[in-house]
Amino acid sequence: MKSLLTLAFMVVAMAAFATSTFASSCGGCPHGEEKDAAKTEELRSFHVVATEVPDYQVLVADGKFEVREYPALTLVRTAAGKGDFMRLFGYISGWNEADEKIAMTAPVLMKDEGGQSGMSFIVPRDVAARKVPAPKDAAVTMDELPAGHFAVYQYSGGRNQANEQEALGQLRAWVEGRQLEVEGEPLFGYYDPPWIPTFLRRNEVMLRVTGTQP
To answer: What are residue 79's DSSP bridge partners?
Structure first.
């Protein structure tokens, strides 16, 4: 039964992503509708339980801000743009050298590197612990996020440039106040599919940091 429920979730979530990758689906969702909000939160809870997320240790907690220690993460990556999500979804659906179906994980990661924006899925722990099958699609590559400390700010809302820049500004100000040094470019993580109302979504912006730990 659990496997059937997980499969059902995957079908619904992937259809939603394919229709509108990270597009806002809340629109005029009435925040005052308690019954609708309760149902949505129940669906979101199932999504969180059914989807693997990375292990990490919280070193500092300050409201919506944290400093976390992450292990190295194995990623499958493609250039952001038209068809990005479906290329990665094709990889985990079996379009790889082993013809192996691989479980979906969260968050989906977005990062700009050298002027090129990329989307990544995190490879599940059990797959990363053995030989990870190579992609068949030349537009999909394997990558790794090295272990380290990351300052993180959690926020809600849809995925758009205005929200991302506001969240990044909040995080940079907090990091500066903590006298932490930033290394590299910001990383954005999106945990929820588009059918989750924007005010309930879990989004994060992350900066790799070094320096004095509070």
So the answer is: 118
57 contact partners, CB below 8 Å, separation of at least 6? 68, 69
Does the structure show a pLDDT above 50 at 85?
yes
Length of the chain: 214
Contact indicator for 54, 191 with CB cutoff of 8 Å: no
* pTM for the whole structure: 0.77
Cis peptide before 135 (omega within 30 of 0): no
Query: Which CATH number describes the domain made up of 1-214?
Result: 3.20.80.10
**CA-based nearest residue to 76, from 63, 64, 92:** 92
Q: What pLDDT score was predicted for residue 34?
A: 53
Domain ranges of the chain: 1-214
Picking from 104, 106, 100, the residue whose alpha carbon sits closest to that of residue 133 is 100
Q: What is the DSSP letter of 198?
A: G
